[in-house]
Amino acid sequence: MSRLLPAVLDVVLVVVFAAVGRRSHAEGLDVAGVLRTALPFLVGTAAGWLVASIVLDGGPRTLGYGAVVVALTVVVGMGLRALAAQGTAPSFVVVATVVLSVLLLGWRLVARLVG
C-alpha cells in the first residue's frame, strides 16, 4: 500500500496534465482523447518509477524519486510523441517540463512539509 498511493497520484496528475493541455488547445475532453494524449507520458512515468526504484535508496515520496520520474516522464513522453509525429515544439517541451515538475514534485513537497 505504501507504494500504491504515490503511483496513483503520479498517474492521475499526468492524466490531469493531458486533460488541461487538451482543454487549453480546444481539443476536447473525451476519455479516449485524453488517454491518447496522456499515454506517451504515462509510459514515461512507468519508466521513471522503474529506474528510480532500481537506482535510488529513497522511497517514492522523496523529491529525488520524483525528479527521476519527472525526467523520464518528459524524455520518454516526448520521444514517443516524436516517433508518432505528434507535437514536440520546444515551447511545449518547456511547458510540459515545468507543469509536470510542479505536479509530480509538488505533491511530494507538500507531503514532506505536512508530514
UniProtKB/TrEMBL annotation:
Residues annotated as transmembrane: 34-56, 63-83, 89-110
Keywords: Membrane, Transmembrane, Transmembrane helix
Highest taxon listed in the record's lineage: Bacteria
Pfam (any one): DUF3054
InterPro entries named among the record's database cross-references: DUF3054
Keyword flag Transmembrane: yes
Protein name: DUF3054 domain-containing protein
Organism: Phycicoccus sonneratiae
